[in-house]
Amino acid sequence: MVRARTDTPRDAGTFHAVRFYENKASLCRIVAEFLGEGLATGQPALVIGTGEHRSGIVEELGARNLDVERLEVTGDLLLLDARELMSTFMVRGVPDAELFRVSASQAIERLRRGRKNRTIRAYGEMVDLLWKDDRSVAAVQLEMLWNKLAASRDFSLLCGYAMGNFYKDASIDLICQQHTHVIGAEGAAGQARQSTTQLFR
């Protein structure tokens, strides 16, 4: 299982993890484990992904005996399109800090529904889409904005990056520096600021 924070106090520490995936199946499995673990403890789930990955994650959640339709109706699961959400805060190819804060906060508060001390579990791949679009600077800026938002919003975030975008790319270290953990193939969360040389073995 993907171990994230299950407590609610602000001083418990931020969980901002990255998962470098090789294929859709492995990504959707890890994300479903991450979100499913939270849903089981009353933590609402937010998915910001492509249509292909959203459907795969939904399928994996269903395989874990979670009633996805009920979760959506009750407001405990919110599925958003990554490019559509990005369109609300990208200005001239880079993320606008205030527009991002508003858009992301609205999504988080939509799930929280006024319930205080409720941690949200979120999966996002907007940064991966930016990297695929050859906007690496914008991708890093967006990761920084997520970290800034974490100072005022209570959530655990898992980001997904396609492995092919990083192979033999020195920028992988820069991305890992923006995260607290790196999620391995089996779902284990290692410290992101440790050496990344094991990622491609």
- Structurally, how many domains make up the residues? 1
Task: Report mean pLDDT, rounded to a whole number.
Answer: 80
Say how many strands there are: 9
CATH topology: Rossmann fold
- Report low-confidence residues grouped into runs of 5 or more: 1-13, 185-201
Going across the major beta sheet, what is the strand order? 3-2-6-7-1-8-9
Can you tell me the CATH architecture? 3-Layer(aba) Sandwich
Q: State the helix count.
A: 8
Q: Structural class of the secondary structure composition?
A: alpha/beta
Silhouette:
globular
CATH homologous superfamily, by name? Answer: P-loop containing nucleotide triphosphate hydrolases
What would you note in describing this structure?
The structure is a single chain. The protein has 201 residues and is an alpha/beta fold. The protein has a single domain, classed as Rossmann fold, CATH 3.40.50.300. Helix content is 43%, strand content 19%. The protein has helices at residues 24-40, 51-63, 68-74, 82-86, 97-112, 126-132, 136-149, 171-177, and strands at residues 16-21, 45-49, 77-81, 90-91, 94-95, 120-124, 155-162, 181-183, 189-191. The strands form two sheets. Strands 3-2-6-7-1-8-9 form a seven-stranded mixed beta sheet, with helices on both faces. Strand 4 and strand 5 form a beta hairpin. Helix 1 (24-40) packs across helix 2 (51-63). The longest helix has 17 residues, at 24-40. The radius of gyration is 16 Å and the shape is globular. Residues 1-13 and 185-201 have low confidence and may be disordered.
